[in-house]
Design brief:
By secondary structure, this protein is of the alpha/beta class. It has one domain: Rossmann fold, CATH 3.40.50. It has three helices and nine strands; from the N terminus they run E-H-E-H-E-E-E-H-E-E-E-E. Strands 4-3-2-5-6-7 form a six-stranded mixed sheet, sandwiched between helices. Helix 2 links the parallel strand 2 and strand 3. The longest helix is centred in the N-terminal third of the chain and has 18 residues. The termini are close together. The structure holds inosinic acid (IMP) and magnesium ion (MG). Inosinic acid (IMP) binds next to strand 3, strand 5, helix 3 and strand 8. Magnesium ion binds next to loops.
C-alpha cells in the first residue's frame, strides 16, 4: 500500500471547511452549551480544530471505538469509556467522528449515548462515504463526501500509521 502523491483533501481545504462547519453549527444553536463526544482515535485532530472555532460553552468527552482491521470494517464495533451519564443527561451532545463508512460504529454509539438521556444528539463527521452505508444513519454536519476509497491522514489511520498527516490522502495498492 502507498500514499497518493497529492492529498485528496488539502490542509487548506480542511482548515476552511472546519471553520465553516463550526460556524454553521454555532449559528444554528443560539449559544446553547454542548458536550462534544469525540470518537477516538480518528476524530481527535478534527475535534481539536473544530472546538477552537466554536463560540459556545463546550465541554469535551472522549469515547474509544474500533472496528477496523487493515482496510476492512470487521462489522464488530468495540466501544470503551463512554462518558459518565451525569455529563450527558439533559445536555446537547455533539458527536464528532472522523468518517462515516458503513455507519455501524455511529449507530452503536448513538444507541449507547441515547441510554444516557441526552436532550439531543447532533452528529458531525469530517468525511462521509455514503456508498458504503449498511445502516440508515446520516450526519447533520458533513465536512466532505468522498468516494469509496480508503483514506488516511488528519487523524485517520492504516494500521495506526499516518494519523499525524495534516491533509487527507488515498492509500493505493502498490
Ligand atoms: P463504520 O462503522 O463502518 O462507519 O466505520 C467507521 C470507522 O472506521 C471510522 O471511525 C474509521 O475509524 C474507520 N474507517 C472507515 N473508513 C476509513 C478509511 O477510509 N480510512 C481510515 N479509517 C476508516
Ligand atoms: Mg474511527
Amino acid at each position: 500500500m502507498r500514499l497518493s502523491d497529492e492529498p485528496i483533501i488539502s490542509r487548506e481545504a480542511i482548515e476552511s471547511r472546519v471553520a465553516e462547519l463550526a460556524h454553521n453549527f454555532a449559528s444554528a444553536h443560539d449559544g446553547e452549551p454542548v458536550v462534544m463526544v469525540v470518537v477516538l482515535k480518528g476524530a481527535a485532530m478534527f475535534a481539536c480544530d473544530l472546538m477552537r472555532h466554536l463560540p459556545l460553552p463546550v465541554t469535551v468527552e472522549y469515547v474509544h471505538a474500533s472496528s477496523y482491521t487493515g482496510t476492512q470494517s470487521s462489522g464488530e464495533v468495540n466501544l470503551e469509556a463512554l462518558p459518565p451519564a451525569v455529563h450527558v443527561r439533559g445536555r446537547h451532545v455533539l458527536l464528532v467522528e472522523d468518517i462515516l463508512d458503513t455507519g455501524q460504529t455511529v449507530s452503536r454509539l448513538m444507541a449507547e449515548l441515547d441510554q444516557l438521556s441526552p436532550a439531543r444528539i447532533t452528529l458531525c463527521t469530517l468525511l462521509d462515504k455514503p456508498s458504503r452505508r449498511v445502516t440508515n444513519v446520516s450526519a447533520d454536519y458533513v465536512g466532505f463526501v468522498i468516494p469509496d476509497r480508503f483514506v488516511v491522514g488528519y487523524g485517520l489511520d492504516y494500521e495506526e500509521q499516518y494519523r499525524h498527516l495534516p491533509a487527507v490522502y488515498a492509500l493505493e495498492q502498490e
